Inverse folding.
């Protein structure tokens, strides 16, 4: 079995391709980057091609968004630029850097989310702008959509239910919009997270990830500056069903989670999420109950924020990535120089750095 891992740092996207990654061994395997894609600006968003296959180099593709440039399609193995797609503000003629990217279906199109905008691009037409574009809410005055206020703010997360083709779009302003035909159809409705029962328990400062359940009934909503993950029943007009508590994600950094569907007869759904404390936690079947749920499993696996967690489809291997931006801090709390004695010297507080990618057998 061959596996590929892609992760992002501030301005580069390394990918790994060890051919013996999942083989049994007595000693730990040292992972080395197979290729690095370097950019002059920070990566705003990226996503991999849905039919990604190492045996077919035409599918080993990576879509990236960086400021002041078109959306770029790269080979994940050779770092070569394959194509670019301009996303331009018609008023200022400046490039728009999407905050969210998502391939649709078999990868013929991709969707880009920005401030009050959702655009669809045709992958087979490099050098061209969006094939369709709709404004989710007017920048001056919110328009009415099915009796509700339009989806305002930066579209920071996108997810499509494969069966119904319903696109869920989430914003940093804590709103979720549902759209038919993979984002090219009508608006099906919108709901906000502010003020619900979970908001007072786990908080949140903006949506960073949306995940559909395999049945298409439930939507898992991940936020920054949040203690948990909300679960909404979409078939009941977007009603809060339950939430996972104790996630420990009080940071503006995107900490990605994974929803694992057990291949055995139980059909369990497991939420895997990392926290700023270096722990990975698991919640089982949060959709089967109402209210809050504490983690069923909890492991300390890193010495820094766990920025991403994903489970292999077999359920036997977990990949976790850690690291965050650190700043040197002065040990003195006071910013007033008059309160500091003349013989004092600045002492930099030591910080633990753990920028690592690890694989675990479970």
């Amino acid at each position: 079995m061959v596996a590929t891992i892609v992760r992002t740092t501030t301005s580069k996207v390394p990918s790994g391709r060890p051919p013996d990654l999942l083989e049994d061994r007595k000693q730990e395997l040292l992972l080395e980057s197979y290729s690095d894609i370097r950019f002059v600006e920070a990566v705003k968003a990226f996503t991999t091609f849905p039919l990604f296959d190492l045996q077919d180099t035409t599918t080993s593709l990576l879509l990236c968004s960086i400021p002041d440039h078109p959306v770029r399609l790269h080979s994940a193995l050779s770092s070569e630029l394959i194509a670019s797609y301009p996303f331009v503000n018609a008023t200022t003629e400046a490039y728009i850097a999407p905050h969210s990217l998502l391939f649709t279906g078999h990868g013929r199109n991709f969707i880009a989310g920005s401030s009050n905008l959702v655009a669809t691009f045709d992958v087979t037409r490099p050098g061209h702008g969006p094939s369709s574009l709709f404004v989710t809410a007017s920048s001056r005055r919110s328009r009415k959509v099915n009796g509700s206020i339009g989806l305002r703010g930066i579209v920071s997360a996108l997810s499509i239910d494969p069966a119904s083709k319903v696109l869920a779009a989430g914003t940093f302003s804590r709103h979720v919009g549902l759209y038919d035909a993979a984002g090219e159809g009508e608006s099906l409705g919108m709901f906000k997270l502010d003020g619900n029962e979970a908001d007072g328990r786990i908080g949140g400062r903006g949506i960073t990830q949306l995940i559909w359940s395999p049945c298409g009934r439930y939507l898992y909503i991940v936020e920054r500056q949040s203690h948990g993950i909300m679960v909404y029943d979409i078939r009941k007009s977007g009603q809060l069903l339950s939430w996972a508590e104790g996630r420990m994600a009080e940071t503006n950094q995107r900490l990605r989670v994974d929803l694992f569907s057990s291949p055995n007869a139980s059909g369990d759904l497991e939420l895997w999420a990392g926290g700023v404390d270096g722990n990975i936690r698991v919640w089982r079947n949060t959709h089967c109950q109402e209210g809050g749920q504490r983690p069923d499993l909890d492991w300390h696996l890193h010495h820094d924020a766990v920025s991403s967690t994903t489970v292999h489809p077999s359920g036997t291997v977990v990949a976790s990535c850690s690291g965050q931006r650190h700043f040197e801090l002065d040990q003195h709390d006071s910013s007033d120089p008059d309160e500091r004695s003349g013989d004092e010297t600045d002492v930099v507080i030591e910080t633990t750095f753990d920028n690592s990618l690890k694989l675990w057998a479970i």
Helices lie at 199-202. The first helix runs from residue 199 to 202. Confidence is low (pLDDT under 50) at residues 141-148. The chain has one domain: 5-331+342-361.
